[in-house]
Amino acid sequence: MTEAEKTSRRKQCILNAVSEALEEYDYRHLTVEDIAARAGVGKSTIYRWWKHKSDLVLDAFKEQTAPVFELDFQQSLAFNFKQQLLKLSQALNHPVGRALLVVMAEHREAAGEFFKQYLLPRREQMRKLIQVAIERHEIIAEYPFELMLDTLYGPIHYQIIFFNRIPDQTYIEHLVSLVMQPILVQNSP
Amino acid sequence: MTEAEKTSRRKQCILNAVSEALEEYDYRHLTVEDIAARAGVGKSTIYRWWKHKSDLVLDAFKEQTAPVFELDFQQSLAFNFKQQLLKLSQALNHPVGRALLVVMAEHREAAGEFFKQYLLPRREQMRKLIQVAIERHEIIAEYPFELMLDTLYGPIHYQIIFFNRIPDQTYIEHLVSLVMQPILVQNSP
Questions:
Q1: ipTM score here?
Q2: Which positions in chain B touch A154 (Cβ < 8 Å)?
Q3: Which chain B residue has its CA at the smallest distance from A28's CA?
Q4: For B3-52, which CATH superfamily applies?
Q5: What is the C-alpha separation between B121 and A135, in angstroms, rounded?
Q6: How far separated are the first and last CA of chain B, in Å rounded?
Q7: For the HTH tetR-type domain, which residue ranges apply (chains A, B) (predicted)?
Q8: Total Cβ atoms within 10 A of residue A19
Q9: Is A112 within 8 Å of B148 when comparing Cβ atoms?
Q10: Do A182 and B182 count as a contact with CB atoms less than 8 A apart?
Q11: Which residues of B touch A151 (CB under 8 A)?
């Protein structure tokens, strides 16, 4: 194993410990001590890579969701929206996702930076899929698509944070239908 | 002053102290000790009415925003939406609003309960205004209005929490236009 592989393994092990700990208790009670003990490393190892427990949660969420949010270009835009929102809803209901929302609220500036990095590549992929959907004549070509994405993703967070409700498949299907109704080609003039 | 008035005054004074403290430091550093000192009361007085500092933040937000979110039935639905969203955006950017988002994320169950009580009367008012707008022929009569409200309020929270961006008037006007476009009477078939 190269040095880089060893580092990667250890980081992975630490992030797994974060997830494991959060399954047992809330973010408030999460300590770097406990993560270190679970991962079998010293606290200084953790502090070499992460400044604060909030950074660990951001990375644990990233690690856990990286493969989850892949788009399927063979499927329609509507299908992809539904899948993405359902996965998002599930991810935010997972203990790491719950902790993530606390971190986002507590460390807005840091979280804003993180999400710019995390969300920009996803938005880029989404823009490509929208382009493909236009070329496949699924949707109209001219529309404020960026703003439309907010009206899809926003309500998921809103339902979870303000109503403590995890949007289910039915809610998500209604939402996607409502938001996409003006752009579907068969409905356009 | 009656006993009830005295109690009300003291509560008000304590909630003002919460707001004042949050202007100086983050929710994480908020303590019941400091609030008691600022309000000139004993800690036991605070604990008589509130179990946890998070409950104080919920009530401080309620107190601060109660008069802010009144609807204006003389104005159009679109006008009211814009006003509401702008005020919401400002309220969540205020120190008490920032703390509120932390509390919501940390205490989802309690916050869910609180918001059911807090939001239900507002939704009720909003439903009335929608009914009035239908009668005034501003909007069509049949539409999933509840879901539509999520696509208006959701993006405000989403922009703030995930992008650390406070939606401004331009963003809000675009959002309201986009979401209302399918229901405006002049655009209906």
A1: 0.87
A2: 150-151, 153-159
A3: B106
A4: Homeodomain-like (1.10.10.60)
A5: 46
A6: 61
A7: 8-68
A8: 19
A9: no
A10: yes
A11: 151, 154-155, 175, 178-179
